[in-house]
Specification:
The complex is a heterodimer of chains A (219) and B (184). Chain A is of the alpha/beta class. In chain A, the strands form two sheets. In chain A, strands 3-2-1-4 form a four-stranded mixed beta sheet, covered by helices on one side. In chain A, strands 5-6 form a two-stranded parallel sheet. In chain A, helix 6 crosses helix 8 and helix 7 crosses helix 8. Chain B is mainly alpha-helical and 184 residues long. In chain B, helix 1 runs antiparallel to helix 2, helix 1 runs antiparallel to helix 6 and helix 2 crosses helix 3. The longest helix of chain B is centred in the last third of the chain and has 24 residues. Chain B is globular. Classes of the chains: A alpha/beta (219), B mainly alpha (184). At the A-B interface, helix 3, helix 4 and strand 4 of A face helix 1, helix 2, helix 6 and helix 8 of B. Chain B: This is RNA polymerase subunit sigma.
């Protein structure tokens, strides 16, 4: 049996102009869908992408807070699929929920912000990893700790390797500063966004660390 | 693959198809409402959709129910008219193939959508769900009531009527085609 749908594609297939118009309509309808899904509490995860000096960053938030920051090298599509499986498939590109964190990241990369002030959703971490990741924001802007020091500070001095994997699996890089943890010999160790990104963040912070934000122009 | 795509991917992959189905069934003005209701309802039910389900058929089925709701709210029978979307008709040549542009699209989209709107309800719905929405005739029959054969016939009669409009258009013999593409 032949396929009658294929047979008529020529007649009903949208023209180039119609496709452009449909796309514009879908863009408007998508905005409305974002708002209505949010109002109806059906938007389990909202995401957007922002440009930064360390490449495009994917930002995703539940209604509890920021749940994931991902570098482009992690493959944003793959990250979204993982979020879909681990948290919820009710995901929309809906930048509004990420407005605050996007603005804070912009300030951070401009050197005018030293700490992040947004609610975090720790859903993607558990156990010892979560404990380590919760300690990381205590490492001051512009300073670093070693994996060994972090292990001691979270009360488990033997767990140096586990601290390493906790940093490597940090779901909220940049915002939760795993880039401030180095090897005991001062070398960078690893980083989820690549070593160049880790070095860039440390350099940014060392440039800004000596100056208090209040003393910086425009703040 | 047994994993469920993020819902955003579903909107990106099927949003256009569902909007065209809604436009064909309801006309351009009510289509936006039906599209919104369809995707909001789909988002709600999405976690329960089996991973191997035919997502597009599922969406088209929801769109059919939402089109009925929209029609009821308007308190009238479904009337699809071949009007242009407002956002198109103002200063844009989309759908019309353009006023004097070098578009290679040989079809007169306005005439086509007018012709779709002029079809009897059953034919218009059968064409929309089968040819635009990709639903098999068995599922079209379930939505519209009646036999699979009746759905197939309604759909093929509808396409025949559209082809007649087209052959007029292509030969330039239809009076309405002369108004297209003229600059005001």
């Amino acid at each position: 049996m032949n396929d009658p749908a294929a047979e008529n594609l020529d007649l009903l297939a949208p023209s180039t102009d119609e496709l452009a118009e449909l796309e514009a309509s879908i863009t408007e309808l998508h905005l409305l869908l974002e708002r209505r899904a949010q109002d109806a509490h059906m938007l389990d995860l909202a995401y957007t992408t922002v440009d930064s000096p360390v490449g495009s960053l994917l930002l995703a938030a539940s209604d509890r807070g920021l749940v994931r920051v991902a570098y482009a090298v992690e493959d944003h599509d793959a990250v979204l699929e993982t979020l879909s499986q681990r948290i919820s498939a009710r995901i929309l590109r809906a930048p509004r929920r990420l407005d605050t964190v996007a603005a804070e990241l912009e300030q951070y990369f401009a050197g005018t912000r030293r700490a992040f002030d947004v609610p975090l959703d720790p859903s993607l971490s558990s156990g010892f990893r979560r404990l380590v990741q919760q300690h990381l924001p205590d490492i001051a802007y512009g300073s670093t700790e070693t994996y060994k020091e972090v292990a001691a500070l979270v009360g488990n001095p033997q767990a140096v390797r586990a601290v390493g994997s906790a940093c490597a699996t940090n779901p909220l890089p940049v915002v939760v500063p795993c880039h401030r943890v180095l090897r005991s010999d001062g070398s960078l160790g690893g980083y989820i966004g690549g070593l160049a990104a880790k070095a860039a963040l440390l350099e940014l912070e060392s440039a800004g660390a000596g100056v208090s934000p209040a003393a910086r122009p425009g703040v | 693959m047994n994993t469920k795509q993020p819902f955003e991917k579903i909107v990106a992959a099927h949003g256009t198809t569902v909007l065209r189905v809604c436009r064909a069934v309801l006309g351009v003005h009510d289509a936006d409402d039906a599209w919104s209701e369809t995707f909001l309802s789909a988002l709600k039910a999405y976690p329960e959709l089996p991973p191997d389900a035919n997502v597009e058929a599922w969406l088209v089925t929801i769109a059919h129910r939402k089109a009925i709701d929209v029609t009821r709210q308007r308190g009238r029978q479904p009337v699809a008219v071949g009007e242009l979307p407002e956002r198109v008709s103002v200063g844009s040549s989309a759908l019309t193939g353009g006023a004097g542009d070098d578009s290679t699209d040989p079809h007169d989209r306005v005439a086509l959508w007018q012709a779709v709107g002029a079809l009897p309800d059953k034919q218009r719905q059968a064409v929309a769900y089968h040819y635009l929405g990709g639903l098999p005739f068995a599922e079209v029959a379930e939505l519209l009531g009646g036999s699979v054969e009746a759905a197939r016939r309604a759909s093929s009669d509808g396409v025949k009527a559209l082809r007649r409009v087209y052959s007029h258009e292509q030969s330039g013999g239809h009076p309405s085609s002369r108004t297209k593409g003229q600059k005001p």
